[in-house]
Amino acid sequence: MVHHSKEHKLDLCQNHLKEHVLVETTTGDQIEGYVIEVDDEHVHLVVPSQQIPHLPVRAYGGYGPYGGHYGGYGPYYGYPPYEYGLSRLIIPLTFVAALSLLPW
After folding, report:
1. Distance set, CA 72 to CA 36, 52, 69, 75, 76 (Å)
2. Please, what is the end-to-end C-alpha distance for the chain in angstroms?
3. Sheet containing 30-38: which strands, arranged edge to edge?
4. Do the Cβ atoms of 21 and 96 come closer than 8 Å?
5. What is the tens place of the pLDDT at every residue in 37-77?
6. Maximum CA pair distance of the chain?
7. Do 31 and 90 touch, CB atoms closer than 8 A?
8. Which residue spans within the chain are E strands per DSSP?
9. Is 17 exposed, middle or buried (0-12, 13-18, 19+ CB in 10 A)?
10. CA-to-CA distance for 15 and 103, rounded, in angstroms?
11. pTM of structure
12. How many whole angstroms separate alpha carbon 96 and alpha carbon 104?
């Protein structure tokens, strides 16, 4: 597997802002969504809510104020996750292994 620099990943994500993409992570997960924001450390995606429970919290949960376990309640504050709709998923750029543009 080719490892790209953080700057390369940042440029790649910025070039696909507001586009439908498939992100493959360094842990092998594949996440389909829309890139809605990119900052120096993270890519922000809008993904179907039913996709989130299948992602490992260990990989994405402990970053920033938006993810992680709070006070022992788990990632959903002790409530089951929403099954339908859209959710925001914030992924550290260091976890992005590949990003592919998808057709509508």
Report:
1. 30, 19, 6, 9, 10
2. 28
3. 86-92, 42-48, 30-38, 20-25, 96-101
4. no
5. 999 999 999 988 777 655 554 444 444 444 444 444 555 55
6. 40
7. no
8. 20-25, 30-38, 42-48, 86-92, 96-101
9. middle
10. 16
11. 0.68
12. 22
